[in-house]
Amino acid sequence: MAYRITLFEGDGVGPEITREIKRIFNELNIDIIYDEYLIGERAYAKYNTLIPEDAIESIKKNKVALKAPVTTPIGKGFRSVNVSLRNIFDLYVNFRPAKSLSGTLSKYDNIDIITFRENTEDLYIGDEEEIDDGYIAKKKITRKNSERIIRYAFEYAVKHNRCKLTCVHKANILKKTDGLFLSIFNEIKNEYPSIIADDKIIDNMCMQLVMNPNEFDLIVAPNLYGDIITDLIAGLIGGLGMAPSANIGDDIAIFEAVHGSAPDIQGKNIVNPTAFFLSGALMLDYLGESEKANKLRFAIEKTLKEGKYLTKDLGGTSSTIEYTDRIISFLN
Ligand code: NAD
User: Fold this and answer.
1) Would you give per-residue pLDDT tens digits along the chain (332 residues)?
2) Mutate which of 41, 85, 261 to test ligand 1's pocket (most atoms within 8 Å of Cβ)?
3) I want to staple 223 with a disulfide (CB 3.0 to 4.6 A). Which of 122, 204, 212, 236 is the partner?
4) Phi, psi (5° rounding) for residue 3?
5) What is the span of the domain harbouring residue 10?
6) Distance 241 CA to ligand 1 centre (A)
7) Do 203 and 252 lie in a common domain?
8) How far, in Å, are 35, 153, 255 from residue 8 at the CA level?
9) 275 CB under 6 A from ligand 1?
10) Is residue 256 lining ligand 1, measured as CB closer than 6 Å?
11) Rounded to whole angstroms, how far apart are CA atoms 256 and 275?
């Protein structure tokens, strides 16, 4: 059966990693039809809009999209393409797994942390207003959106035999907004007695993650803290080039690397495509192709462990294409 997905090759290094993931899917013998659209900076240059209507219609129709990073133009009042897509399709779960793989420049071993970041509200509603001497930004936390992300995280823990879920907040200062998120976490945890449930204030959480990352298993957080700690956690497993993600709603999902369009290394054939490949593996899991997803993960691990063909950020000298060639050689 052929899968039909919406594909965005994105900006910056996006086209380079998109080209490579297509080679991987081809080698894995997965029949995928790509409906490709431009979004982001290049779409703006061509169509004067960051997200053309036909791209939105394609996601609605296909229900699954793979998205390379896009550039959000600075200082022209643009809303981030990512934030817009998450809101248009109500993709309320930002699923960000981070797992140590040998061969990376990571300072730690055995990290296996998954963050469930609330994806639709918090400061990301982008509601800022002018006051006498500056601006105020509004932070929105609702019962409905907090409940569904927290419940999703607990359900995941049960289904996947994970033992602990940590809620991140700043409820000591933001007593109403973060206070609500924490109190909902404390209500829901009673329904899941088999899961160890605790909470940490965001500043302490950052310190603990750096000092004792192996203490953590699953994390649930409001949007902004989730964004920040997942970059921190990416740093613990070897950098942004290693961190995949999925934006999941009730019946639509968009898969993408955590990193941005990295314009500083665009066109140099040195971008590390691992995060995007691992996002592709998450997409294959979602499509019910876990066997092929695991094959891809295994080939990535083997390439990293062997250590002969690594990209520059991983301490090697190989190009993006050479690194991918090596992964492909381990696929069969
Ligand atoms: P970035 O993640 O693009 O880059 C940060 C640094 O990490 C850069 O030095 C870059 O070269 C390096 N880096 C990132 N990914 C790498 C990889 N796979 N391999 C090797 N090195 C890598 O963040 P930025 O520079 O702050 O943002 C650039 C643009 O990307 C901005 O326009 C931003 O809005 C956008 N952005 C998009 C997404 C997305 O589409 N999902 C996410 C974050 C940022």
Assistant:
1) 799 999 999 999 999 999 999 999 999 999 999 999 999 999 999 999 999 999 999 999 999 999 999 998 776 667 789 989 999 999 999 999 999 988 777 888 889 999 999 999 999 998 999 999 999 999 999 999 999 999 999 999 999 999 999 999 999 999 999 999 999 999 999 999 999 999 999 999 999 999 999 999 999 999 999 999 999 999 999 888 899 999 999 999 999 999 999 999 999 999 999 999 999 999 999 999 999 999 999 999 999 999 999 999 988 999 999 999 999 999 98
2) 261
3) 122
4) -95, 140
5) 1-95+243-332
6) 9
7) no
8) 9, 28, 10
9) yes
10) yes
11) 8
Distance 184 CA to ligand 1 centre (A): 34
Last residue of a domain, one of 236, 260, 287: 236
* Residue with CA nearest ligand 1 atom 34: 72
- 133 & 205 share domain: yes
Question: Ligand 1 centre from 2 Cα, in Å?
Answer: 32
What's the 257 CA to ligand 1 centre distance in angstroms? 10
Q: Which residues contact 78 (CB under 8 A, 6 or more apart)?
A: 44, 50, 72
Q: From the alpha carbon of 273, which atom of ligand 1 is closest?
A: 18
Model-level pTM greater than 0.85?
yes
